[in-house]
Amino acid sequence: MRRPILAGNWKMNKTVAEATEFVRSIRRGLNDVKGVDRVLCPPFTSLAAIKDLLSATQIGLGAQNMHWEEKGAYTGEVSPLMLKELCEYVILGHSERRAYFGETDEGVNRKIKTALAHDLRPIVCVGETESQHDAGQTESVVRGQVRDCLAGLTADQVAGLVLAYEPVWAIGTGKAATVGGAGAVIGLTIRGTVAELYGEPTAQAIRVQYGGSVSPANVAEFMAHPDIDGALVGGASLKADFVELVRIAAETKGV
Fold first, then answer.
1. What is the CATH number of the domain that holds 205?
2. If both were cysteines, with which of 125, 163, 188, 209 could 230 make a disulfide (CB 3.0 to 4.6 Å apart)?
3. Model's pTM, two decimal places?
4. How many domains does the chain contain in total?
5. In whole angstroms, what is the distance from residue 172 CA to residue 108 CA?
6. CB atoms < 10 A from the CB of 25, how many?
7. Residue among 96, 103, 128, 166 flagged as catalytic
8. Are 228 and 182 in contact (CB under 8 A)?
9. Are 150 and 108 in contact (CB under 8 A)?
10. Structural domain harbouring 248
11. What is the pLDDT along the chain (255 residues), one digit of tens a residue?
C-alpha cells in the first residue's frame, strides 16, 4: 500500500518568529498522527529554526523551490547543497512558480534530477489552468507535464517521487475540484502516463497528492478516493486545524 502524505505549503507567509511559535503549537498534535507522512514547507528563512523544532519528531521538512545548480552566480537562488543540510523534501514546479516566474517543464525536470542526486525527495506539481480546463485540455496538458517533467528518469527514481495534481483554478479560490474529477485525472491521466512510460508497477508505486482548496471540511472526501494518496495543502496549513485535517486524512485512509 502507498503511504499517504500530507504536505503544508506555507508559500510566502510567516516570519521566523511566527513560524516557530506556530510549529510549537502544532508539533505535538501533528507528531501524534500515525500512519501518514506529515511535511511542513515553510519559507527558506524559517527552515533552520523549524528543523531544530522538529528534530525529535517524525514530522518531515521541505523547501518550496530549488535551483538546479549546486552553486554559482545565481543571485537570490538556493541550491540543493544548501537544502540537504536542512530538509528532506522540496516542492518543484508549483503552479505559482510556473505562472509568476516563468518556470517550464524542462526546468522542473532539471531540478528533479539535481534534487535526486542530492537525496532530496521532490514533490512535483502538475495541473491545468482554468482556461485549459474550460477548453477540455486537462488530459493533454497534464499528460504533457508528466511526460516532460519525468524525462530521463529511471523507473526506480519515478517510483520514489511524490506528484501533486493541482488544478490551478482551484488553488486558493475555495473552489475545489470534484473528487471524481480529481480522482480521474490522478488515476487515469497521471498514473496512466506513468504506466505508459515506466510500467504499471511504477504507476502503482508512485504517490500522488491532490492540491487545491483542501480543508478539514473536504479532505475526507478526497482521501476516500483510492488513487489520491494525500494532499498538498496551502492556506489551511497555516492554521492550527491543519492537525485536524491530517488526522481526518489518516482516519479516512484507515491507517
1. 3.20.20.70
2. 209
3. 0.96
4. 1
5. 22
6. 12
7. 166
8. yes
9. no
10. 5-253
11. 899 999 999 999 999 999 999 999 999 999 999 999 999 999 999 999 999 999 999 999 999 999 999 999 999 999 999 999 999 999 999 999 999 999 999 999 999 999 999 999 999 999 999 899 989 999 999 999 999 999 999 999 999 999 999 998 887 777 778 999 999 999 999 999 999 999 999 999 999 999 988 999 999 999 999 999 999 999 999 999 999 999 999 999 986
66 Cα distance to chain centroid: 14
Q: Which three cell numbers stand for residue 234?
A: 496551502
The Cα 175–Cα 192 span in angstroms is 26
Which member of 94, 96, 103, 128 is catalytic? 94
Which grid coordinates are listed for 231?
494532499
225 is catalytic: no
Q: What is the dihedral of CA 185, 123, 28, 219, to 10 degrees?
A: -10
